[in-house]
Amino acid sequence: MIRVLIADDQPLVRAGLTALVSLEDDLEVVGEATDGIQALAMARELRPDVACLDIRMPGQDGITVARALCGPDVEDPIPVLVLTTFDLDDYVFGALEAGVSGFLLKDAEPDAITAAIRQVAAGNGTIDQTLTRRIMSEFVRRRTLQPVSRSRDSDVLTGREQEILLLLAQGMSNEAIARELVVETSTVKSHLARMLPKLGVQSRLQAVVWAYQNRFVELPAAT
């Protein structure tokens, strides 16, 4: 059973998400928070498998809460999925830098939201596919997440780690990467566990951002 904390200051949104999650046999809502301070306290007490956070909340915003739950200095992080009404917004970029495992727009299809919760709980980052190129383009243009340059890639990552990073950037899950490389899923996870600290990032999603920022992979041409 995947244990989920939902934090949103809008009662209707919070009730809708709770109802949606509760309909799934493998998902369980263990807490509902109405502001950032309550969300942080409940997350630390309940230790959910996934914390679903709104970005804009009273008390503390979702980015501040996320940084406290899954930021670079957190020894035992709690995976965070951000649900936002904004597409290209500083809050979204801040969430990526805070170490969140994924984010979706609040108007995403119900199946997409529950699937994202499962992906985050499984250690797979997720991002709203309608926003991927726009967000990555803007993030690469505006921000520097980690100062490792392209010229140092061969020193930072092993050949296998570079292969996995390329496949991550294509949006593949651990299972899909394992099939592509003809290895066990546990092997992929082991490589990821060693790779993320080398890049100075906390999540698969941040690793993908790093790959684009450092020109390890190029953004696809607009269509």
Report on the architecture of this protein.
By secondary structure, this protein is of the alpha/beta class. It folds into two domains: 2-130, Response regulator (Rossmann fold, 3-Layer(aba) Sandwich), CATH 3.40.50.2300; 147-213, Orthogonal Bundle (Arc Repressor Mutant, subunit A). It is 50% helix and 13% strand. The protein has helices spanning 11-22, 36-46, 62-70, 90-98, 110-121, 132-142, 153-156, 159-169, 174-181, 185-199, 204-213, and strands at residues 2-7, 27-33, 50-54, 80-84, 102-105, 126-127. It has a six-stranded parallel beta sheet, sandwiched between helices. Helix 2 packs parallel to helix 3, helix 8 (159-169) crosses helix 11 and helix 9 packs across helix 10. The longest helix is centred in the last third of the chain and has 15 residues, at 185-199. Residues 145-154 have low confidence and may be disordered.
Note the main attributes of this structure.
Arc Repressor Mutant, subunit A; CheY-like_superfamily; 11 helices; 2 domains; Rossmann fold; phosphoprotein; 6 strands; 223 residues; six-stranded parallel sheet; 50% helix; DNA binding; alpha/beta
Blueprint (SSEs and pairs):
Blueprint: E1 2-7, H1 11-22, E2 27-33, H2 36-46, E3 50-54, H3 62-70, E4 80-84, H4 90-98, E5 102-105, H5 110-121, E6 126-127, H6 132-142, H7 153-156, H8 159-169, H9 174-181, H10 185-199, H11 204-213
Parallel strand pairs: 1-2, 1-3, 3-4, 4-5, 5-6
Helix pairs in contact: 2-3, 3-4, 8-11, 9-10
Which secondary-structure class do the elements indicate? Answer: alpha/beta
Q: From the 3D structure, determine the CATH topology of the largest domain.
A: Rossmann fold
Helix content: 40-55%
- Under the CATH scheme, which class of the largest domain? Alpha Beta
